[in-house]
Amino acid sequence: MRPTDPAQQNPSPPTKLQSSVVPRLALGVADAELRKEIRSLRIEMGKIATAVGRQRRAAGISEAELLQRLTPRDVEICLDIYDHRVLTSKQLTELHFTHPVVCRRRLDSLTDIGVLARFRPYQRPGSAPFHYLLGPVGIDVVAAAKGLEPKSLNYRRERLLSLASRGVMAHLMSVNTFFSSLTGACRRNGEMALVEWWCERRCAERWGDVIMPDGFGVVEGGSGRVSFFVEIDRGTEIRARLQGKVDRYEHLACLGDAGLVLFCFDSEGRERSIRRSMLRRGAPVATTTLAHHTAEPLGRVWWPLGEDGRASLMELGR
């Protein structure tokens, strides 16, 4: 049975985007329209450059330079980093580029002019990829695109940098890898698109009194449309807590906001172990590992509770 889309439970008034691929989700309409306008150049880049340039003259970046250097894709990158807190070079390649070298060169340029800032968390063996935050110019770009004052964004890089020391960064990177790899796979497929990706903060604003998913997404394609909640498990939560999440998703479905519930584990052993004790209620639940999903985001990697075989994401939604 196909899950009920939250958007269909609370339809918004008709707008000029109603026939587009952007889903009519109550909290997502404004940002979706903004991003569509940026992509179609209905937002004039000159206006953003002018708004940002007034504050960047002291840093030696003129409005003319910003207008020359800043592209609609750059604004999209800034908006994504603002929404999802920290993104790596590989994740940004999946989201906005078709080749990692082109991505790296563009990120270098944006870092040089203060649009982005970056760091590398400690990692042994080897070295971690660059992790990107908004730089001072990037904060102003996001504020100008949203029509807000920069201070109202309450964006603090030092607070985000502290995520690494608190051990939260690994979980955030797993969530962002899940969605960025799915985005890239949909683009390469050519017939599918991840049309909605809600971060944990936005999910909490809508469903926080019942459940706090790690993310929510909607994929559309020739074979239909599927909405889903994502739970990333890195082996730190006890079985009873995971079962409690399944129960709360069932309660959420009873309230009218139903969707697939996707649990992504850190290993096959952990997946099989949790499945033996996980009871399916009314909410449709499927499991996989992050490695399997990253390798084949649109492949038959999802194992529904109560089923013997695996299915693709779109097959789960039928």
Describe this structure in words.
The protein has 318 residues and is an alpha+beta fold. The protein folds into two domains: 43-166, Winged helix-like DNA-binding domain superfamily/Winged helix DNA-binding domain (Arc Repressor Mutant, subunit A, Orthogonal Bundle), CATH 1.10.10.10; 170-316. The chain contains 15 helices and nine strands. It has helices at residues 6-9, 29-39, 45-56, 63-69, 72-84, 89-96, 100-112, 136-146, 157-165, 169-189, 200-207, 239-254, 268-277, 290-295, 313-316, and strands at residues 87-88, 116-119, 131-134, 192-198, 215-221, 224-232, 260-265, 285-289, 303-304. The strands form two sheets. Strands 4-5-6-7-8-9 form a six-stranded mixed sheet. Strand 5 and strand 6 form a beta hairpin. Helix 3 (45-56) packs across helix 4 and helix 3 (45-56) packs across helix 8 (136-146). The relative contact order is 0.11.
Largest sheet, spatial ordering of strands: 4-5-6-7-8-9
Domain unit count? 2
Biggest sheet, open or closed, and with what strands and sense?
A: 6 strands, mixed
Task: Find the count of extended strands (DSSP E, 2+ residues).
Answer: 9
